[in-house]
Amino acid sequence: MSSTATANKHTGSGPVLDWAAGHGPVTGALSATTGAFAVATTGAATSMPPGWALAVGAAGALGHTVVGLRVRNAGRTLATRAASWLVGAGWTTWAMTHGPLTWAALGSLATVGVGIGAAARSTALYEEAREEETIATEQRQIAAELSAERRAIAAEWADRIQRVCSITVRILGVEMWETGAGFSIDAELPPGGATWNKIAAESPRLSADARLPHGCTATASPGVHQGRVIIDVTTVNVLEEERTYPTDYGTLSVHTGIPWGYRTNAASILAYLREQCALVVGPTGSGKTNMVHAILAGFARADDVLTWVIDLNAGSAGLPWVLPALNGDLQSGDGKPVRPGVDWLAGTYDEAMTMLETAVRVAKQRKMGYQDLLARHNTDLLPISSKIPQIMLVIDEGAEILASPDRQMRKMAEKILEVIRIARAMGLRTVLTALGATGSVLGNLMIRREAKVRVALTGGETEGMDLGKMFPGTRGLRVDQAPYKGAGFMGTPESPAGLFKAWRILPNQIRDIIAATSDRHPTLDDISAKAAGSAYRRRWDAERTAWMRDHTPDDDSPDAGSYGLASGLALSALDGPETRQVSPEDEMLARFRAEIDAQFATAPDPHGPTEQAPPPASGGLNLAALRGEQDSTAQQAALALLLAAGTEGTGASAIARALADEYGTTRQTVVGWLKTWVTDGTAVRVGEGTKARYVHRQHAPELPPEG
What we know:
alpha/beta, Rossmann fold
């Protein structure tokens, strides 16, 4: 290679030769003529028999014809290529006989080259046009078939809407979903005042008339203007199957939306939380905890969000996002320490109040410290970025805190409402969860006004799930449309309320997300960090995180709510003396009985010594009630909680929460037990609806004696 070529190679200038590229009309003709001239010259000099060149040309023409037939070239192309071989071979044979270095030989060779090039260019254009026409024909055929299918759908649904809704619409388009789960109909409403709401109200009847599978719906939403309507028809129930959280842990932003799940058309639904708060409700067993983890996963993936979590239930919602990093179980590729998946976790009342007071100080300091920045950007919304991150405050069962009559909870509720009220422009927003969509939860005007992103996980549960209050103005939503765990309804200012399902996020995925996003988490900006002070800087100190690592239950501080029972209570009263083994559960039960005996006169143990014990005092707590023929240890523990609740009684949700960790008991199961106990006289129901309480018969003396 010459120095010029070498220089061109290194500098990137000048012509570049691609030796692997195929021949075009010019290079192909040049190659053919130079090859023929070389063979003719060599053959004439070495007295090569001229017939050899003709034989080679004939073989080349035959070979190209066979290959062309296999790839289905046009007849014009086959003839041109065969003729090129034969003409070239004929000239070579003639030149070897009469001499290739004459002006006649050279002139004729040039003419042959020009002819081969022109013929090659013509056939190439013809083949391109022929290929394009073939593709166009196939596309027209597909379009025709699709158009026929769409026309059939349009005619069918126009007739159905007329029959069911008594509205004559003109269907303008039918769009098939890429996921194959259904289609959307764009229809024009007739003049005379018909609105899309009338079609939306008839969603169940439309779905039944179309014979859609269970879990599939035909829902109407506003079109491009008030005279148009969009009808989304689901034909495949994607909510029935469980889908795990996507393993693509790419970078997200609060500005571009955080994915929280997927719609019935299998498309992701985004929550835009720069200015909005969020409310997530779901009874026990509906998948609310999993939904919280999916929300935390989205915040962890964002490079402009810091997540603060409050969970007064021992911090259970945030611990999986903190402990792997604090315990050093994860290692980053570059050797740097792995940061927790959430920026701050509060599992106690004092820590939660510290966090809320810090959030208020940060919001106020940002208002003062970023006035120049706001003026430069000509906005009243703080420009959120990785340098000035948004703080998302996730409060598990926070809506219950707002409605609690407890004095301490009222103080915390005031701080939560203050954050919601003053911090929108300064980039502090909240995500509250609740056990149900009831009047007590949605009665707060601040929640209704600010929490425009709303999720109702139903899991088929109807009690305490008022979708009309949760999504006012939206009709046609029914709990039985989402009977699956993790499924429910979600509505945002950008997307009307409709069916959706949250991804199932597995524990190993949480660890993977923590490791994958560790270097992506932003740090609190200087102005905010100054306002946060030492309360924020020392949030991971050993004395403030000791409770996260202390898994030993405190005998003096049981954690089963206000009933004074440990959540891990397990009764082995049904075991005989010969099979009963001493276990931590037995010891805990023994301590529980001892405490009860010290306070009340209890009934004798039927499995205990045979000597007679003094009779119990009137109205005493009879532990023999725990030793009935119950179906399971979990049911015995539930009865113990009911008995310990005293005259105030308890509810199914409280019992289910106390037993969930130890036994995995759901609220629906506890409801079944309570109904059975009410029927057989073991318990009595007090109150109706969401305020219903259940009292053990020993605390309701007006009941007739058992048996």
